[in-house]
Structures are given as structure tokens and as C-alpha cells.
Design goal:
By secondary structure, the protein is of the alpha/beta class. It is built from 12 helices and 6 strands. A 6-stranded mixed β-sheet has the order 1-3-2-4-6-5, sandwiched between helices. Strand 5 and strand 6 form a beta hairpin. The chain is globular and about 50 Å long. It starts with a helix and ends with a helix. It binds uracil. Uracil binds next to helix 7.
Length: 248
């Protein structure tokens, strides 16, 4: 079986088929209510080293699909691994000129595997559409790929910890490196702070162009803030920020 596996793994296409079959199997297990599988770190390393050998260089994250597969297998935050339904990698066009970055998946996103699909997401979609774009024109991702757990509570959200952000943000850096958007919109304090790697006051930063690794970045309010603050003066600010993005 090992020789056969080795043979299969030398073909990249076959590797992806194997991966798909594995994901299909795991999804079926999850549908039956199974929450954990035990895989030793050695086995995961062996799988990745086969992938690396097969292309002669480190191909783990040279393409978006492979980056996604690696993120799906991430187990760096044990508390989030055991509470998540799935990893919420991102959605949209991997060749997008414009990329939106949010905080972390909420309950709806954790269930559906897609960022910004809940109430705040619907507002973000409206904002994107009012800009003359659709969700499939842009790329949408979060600082955290897993929903922050809320032990002892069945509802509600919590902000990511500094530690969780530092652990997870390399996935986002790699996503941005591959997408190479012409512009970024950072939604809220966590997104702005996570990308700039410092603590920021969103009220001071919003509307002020920043630079993330040479890419212009517009900090603005998180749409959830607008859901809770219906004042026209605050709504106007986010529109001014989006107008600046459209103009640029
Ligand atoms: N809030 C976020 O920051 N991201 C999501 O994906 C959903 C809600």
C-alpha cells in the first residue's frame, strides 16, 4: 500500500484527487456527527513532504488551492479546532483588484463556510453592490479563519485574542501575496490592527489611507458597527471611505 501511495503521490493531479477523496470522507464523517479524527503530526508531515518532493520545490502554498487546503488542515489553535464547524478561508475572485478584510467568522459563517454571510455580511454585500461590484468581483477574507469559541455559551461572538490573531494572520498574508490586490479595505479595528500589526483606534484611522506591504489600504468601520449605530452621520463616513476607494 505504501508503494502504491508513493506512486500515486508522485502525480500532482492524483494527489489532488486523493485530497478531494479525503475531504469527502471527512465531510461524510462530520455529517454523521463525528467531531474529531486523530492524525499524527508525522503523518501530516509525510503527506506534505510527498507533495513537496513531487514538484521538486516547496509547493505547499504556491497556488491558492493548495493554500486553502493547508488552511483547512490547520490545527494551531486547539480550542478553535474543537469548536469550529469548518475553516472559513475566504470567498470571491482570487484575481480581484479589491480585497475586503474582516475580523473573524461568526456563527453563520462557521456553518456556511463563507465569510460575511450573516447580518453584517448582508450589509457588506449591499455596500459592495452599491460600489457597482459584486461579491464575485472582489475577494473577502478575515484575520481569523476559525470562529472564536465561546465556551459555556451557545450564541454570541467574541473578539479574537492577540495570540489567535498572531497565529492565524500568516494565512491572510499568504492570501494577499497570491491575490496581489490593487487595494485593500480593512473593516474595523481588528482587521486594521491585524494587517498593520499594531493596536489602532478605528475612529482615528478610518478614512486615512494606510499602506500594507506597498498596497494602499483603506481602514473603515466594520459593517456590524453600522448595524448597531444607525446614525446617518456614521453611515455617511463609511460611504465617504468607499468613495475614496472607488476614486482611487
Ligand atoms: N464579521 C467578520 O468580521 N467577518 C465575517 O466573516 C462575519 C462577520
Amino acid at each position: 500500500a505504501a508503494v502504491e501511495a508513493q506512486f500515486i503521490l508522485t502525480e500532482m493531479g492524483a494527489y489532488e484527487k486523493l485530497l478531494e477523496a479525503t475531504i469527502g470522507h471527512l465531510n461524510a464523517q462530520r455529517a454523521q456527527g463525528r467531531r474529531h479524527v486523530t492524525v499524527s503530526p508525522e503523518k501530516i508531515d509525510a503527506l506534505f513532504s510527498k507533495l513537496t518532493e513531487s514538484n521538486g520545490h516547496d509547493v505547499k502554498e504556491t497556488s491558492f488551492g493548495q493554500l486553502r487546503q493547508s488552511a483547512f488542515a490547520c490545527t494551531k489553535c486547539p480550542n478553535l479546532v474543537s469548536s469550529r464547524t469548518q475553516v472559513v478561508f475566504g470567498v470571491g475572485n482570487p484575481q480581484a483588484d479589491l480585497m475586503f478584510v474582516g475580523e473573524a467568522p461568526g456563527q453563520d459563517e462557521d456553518r456556511q463556510g463563507e465569510p460575511f454571510v450573516g447580518a453584517a455580511g448582508k450589509l457588506l454585500t449591499k455596500i459592495i453592490e452599491t460600489m457597482g461590484l459584486s461579491r464575485s468581483d472582489v475577494y473577502i477574507a478575515n484575520i481569523l479563519k476559525c470562529r472564536p469559541d465561546t465556551p459555556g455559551r451557545s450564541t454570541g461572538n467574541r473578539a479574537p485574542t492577540t495570540n489567535e490573531m498572531a497565529t492565524c494572520v500568516p494565512w491572510l498574508h499568504k492570501q494577499i501575496d497570491l491575490i496581489q490586490p490593487r487595494m485593500l479595505v480593512a473593516l474595523g479595528k481588528t482587521a486594521v490592527g491585524g494587517l498593520l500589526e499594531k493596536d489602532v483606534a478605528i475612529t482615528r484611522f478610518r478614512g486615512q489611507w494606510q499602506t500594507y506591504r506597498g498596497i494602499p489600504m483603506m481602514p473603515t468601520f466594520h459593517p456590524a458597527y453600522l448595524l448597531h449605530n444607525q446614525s446617518l452621520a456614521e453611515k455617511r463616513k463609511i460611504w465617504e471611505d468607499m468613495l475614496a476607494v472607488m476614486e482611487r
